[in-house]
Amino acid sequence: FAKGMVGQQLMNKGITIIDDPLVKRGLRSAFQDSAGIESKAITFIENGILKSYNMNAQEAALVNEKPIGREDGPTNVKVLPGKQTVDELIADIKGNKEGVYIRGFGGGKVSVNDGTYSKQAHGHLIKDGKITDIAIDSFIVVGNLKDMFMNVTIANDTPDFITEGTAFAAPTARIDVCHIAVK
Which pTM was predicted? Predict the structure, then answer.
């Protein structure tokens, strides 16, 4: 779905996603990938603009690009933090509007070919600008990645790689254009 979009707006302007294989003590840190290609820091998305695809050497050759040193997939990916706190991000979900603070996802489908997204989730109801104790389970989040990416707003709570013990660090995100389907 993002084919031919390098240099174009793929996400909201506030989104920057980096991949740094040289993070000290990072879970996926390495000086080179399993194909022997040097791994360097890459910016995949900068201020919403697609800068590079995540691709192995074979995929790079198919699109006439140089290998990026990611034969084994991304290394230490980080979505840089936004400007709002989580509380500010959800403060206007009140009145006749309700939302869901998703705590986790289960099975489902994400298609990189056409951008369709459908995943089971569980979380808590957002009402009057606050996350409530009301648990919501067994619902499905449905949307299109292009629409979701262009309408995502992120909080300033991106965790640190080392303290969180993860190879992917992302902040809380708000997406206003997906649909919730209850089983």
Answer: 0.89
Q: How many C-beta neighbours within 10 Å does residue 134 have? A: 12
Contacts for 12 with CB less than 8 Å, ≥ 6 apart: 48, 149, 150, 151, 152, 153
Query: How is residue 1 written in tokens?
Result: 């779905």
For residue 173, list its beta bridge partners: 154
Provide the 10 A C-beta neighbour count for residue 170: 17
Query: What are the backbone dihedrals phi and psi of residue 46, each rounded to the nearest 5 degrees, phi first?
Result: -125, 115
Q: What angle do CA 48, 82, 68 make, to 5 degrees?
A: 45
Distance CA 48, CA 122 (A): 28
Q: Give first-to-last CA distance, the chain, whole Å.
A: 28
Q: Strands, DSSP E only, in 47-129?
A: 49-50, 77-79, 99-110, 116-127
DSSP 1-16: --TT-TTSB-S-TT--
Rounded Cα–Cα distance for residues 5 and 170 (Å): 23
Cβ neighbours, 10 Å, residue 36: 10
Task: For residues 115 and 117, give the distance between their C-alpha atoms in angstroms, rounded to a whole number.
Answer: 6
Other C-beta atoms within 10 Å of 105: how many? 14
Q: Tell me the pLDDT tens digit for each residue of 5-58.
A: 899 999 999 999 999 999 988 889 999 999 999 999 999 999 999 999 999 999
Q: What is the pLDDT of residue 175?
A: 92
